[in-house]
């Protein structure tokens, strides 16, 4: 039996016919369709508006096609208002997340204690104004703290090996120890910069060239990234030991300092010899002393925390798998390298005649004196050596090495190019020697000669790398070679060597720049003491003022101690004026 429906008509209600006989408008809707509103009268279609003059007709849109009864509903498209302009989902990983992830959440007690000890030792020992024994003492405290952190890490989680880290740490202390024996500030500054690089390699794990360069930047970056790491480590330590434990530690430290001051003051007032020892140990207290302590301690604590963070969270920035370079055909690199080899062959032929010829041959051939010939060509040959290294690096990157023939061709041509570069190095060193014999020795000439020697050794390493299949040792070995070069300069004692050569030149030709000799460091005092009267006082006047005040134990230096023995009293420069001229 069908259910009756009622439709309004003339204010009355009457039963409608059954749904089986109803009109299509009154039929039941299909599944999922909206039922029609039977109480709303049907809308009459609006007639189109007549076009108005001067306006284009408005296009009318046709009504959407009616959906056949019983058909499934069409899926609705996305609502533009609900589309987010921001990309949904997890963000792309950053460079640090990919190459330098954080593996350790909080700093351990060994890292925190090591940073504190390194800061205290450096603040108490390091002299900022001059080289001295305090520099290797501070460096030894820093590297010892880092090595303790490294040894407490499980071997499989270490980014660098213990033996290699120990070698780089020993190189750091050796470079800082130059300040104990040599007073030359320029040499010690180079050693301090190199010591920072060796410290970065001791805690870094990179092997490729970009990773070695990035190691110097990773160490200070690690210090900043380690600040939350240290904060969580301190919070974990406080939670483990409690506030009472930290208070007891601070109280014990304060009590120890108080007893040290009281008993030290009593013993110093009771005995003059003990008072002299205390005066030698304690620094001269002034307003700047606490500032220096805080600054030095903060710097070394920053380095210790950054190094410990790198040991726990190794960085692989610059050390990943290199992207495969687009190789070129063999003739595309053989032609330019062959052109360079041709120039090298001509230059080598000329240099053989010059190196084994006499002075008359050089003067007839070049039309210059030996000194002018050397001065004109050294710097150009230095640039040629650097450009040759660039050519070798680019060729190794771009040349194809799939077949044995390609590898053999690459090794032969680059081996010949490296041999030509070695001849350039020898020629440059020979020219510098001639130039020094004519005009004397100076710091810049000695330093660039050492740099040229290092370039020659680097070329030899490149030739060895062309034969050895694994070359990941080359970048770090190049740095080790530069460290050996600096230590060799320290053994040479460059300021004293320069003074000895110029003093001998003054004795032979009575022609030397005495004013320049007076600008050398205290290392040159034993050689300058051999000058004749007048010239001796001129050369030693500046040195006598620099070493007049005695050093405490932090700034003790062998070169200054020897110079203080030679010139115990300052030399008055008004009695022995020095002019910048050759005499």
TrEMBL record:
<feature type="transmembrane region" description="Helical">
    <location>
        <begin position="173"/>
        <end position="203"/>
    </location>
</feature>
<keyword id="KW-1133">Transmembrane helix</keyword>
<feature type="transmembrane region" description="Helical">
    <location>
        <begin position="209"/>
        <end position="228"/>
    </location>
</feature>
<feature type="region of interest" description="Disordered">
    <location>
        <begin position="1"/>
        <end position="88"/>
    </location>
</feature>
<feature type="transmembrane region" description="Helical">
    <location>
        <begin position="333"/>
        <end position="357"/>
    </location>
</feature>
<protein>
    <submittedName>
        <fullName>DUF4173 domain-containing protein</fullName>
    </submittedName>
</protein>
<feature type="transmembrane region" description="Helical">
    <location>
        <begin position="450"/>
        <end position="468"/>
    </location>
</feature>
<feature type="compositionally biased region" description="Pro residues">
    <location>
        <begin position="38"/>
        <end position="78"/>
    </location>
</feature>
<feature type="transmembrane region" description="Helical">
    <location>
        <begin position="377"/>
        <end position="396"/>
    </location>
</feature>
<feature type="transmembrane region" description="Helical">
    <location>
        <begin position="249"/>
        <end position="270"/>
    </location>
</feature>
<feature type="transmembrane region" description="Helical">
    <location>
        <begin position="105"/>
        <end position="127"/>
    </location>
</feature>
<feature type="transmembrane region" description="Helical">
    <location>
        <begin position="290"/>
        <end position="312"/>
    </location>
</feature>
<feature type="compositionally biased region" description="Low complexity">
    <location>
        <begin position="19"/>
        <end position="36"/>
    </location>
</feature>
<dbReference type="InterPro" id="IPR025291">
    <property type="entry name" value="DUF4153"/>
</dbReference>
<feature type="transmembrane region" description="Helical">
    <location>
        <begin position="408"/>
        <end position="430"/>
    </location>
</feature>
<keyword id="KW-0472">Membrane</keyword>
<feature type="transmembrane region" description="Helical">
    <location>
        <begin position="133"/>
        <end position="153"/>
    </location>
</feature>
<dbReference type="Pfam" id="PF13687">
    <property type="entry name" value="DUF4153"/>
</dbReference>
<keyword id="KW-0812">Transmembrane</keyword>
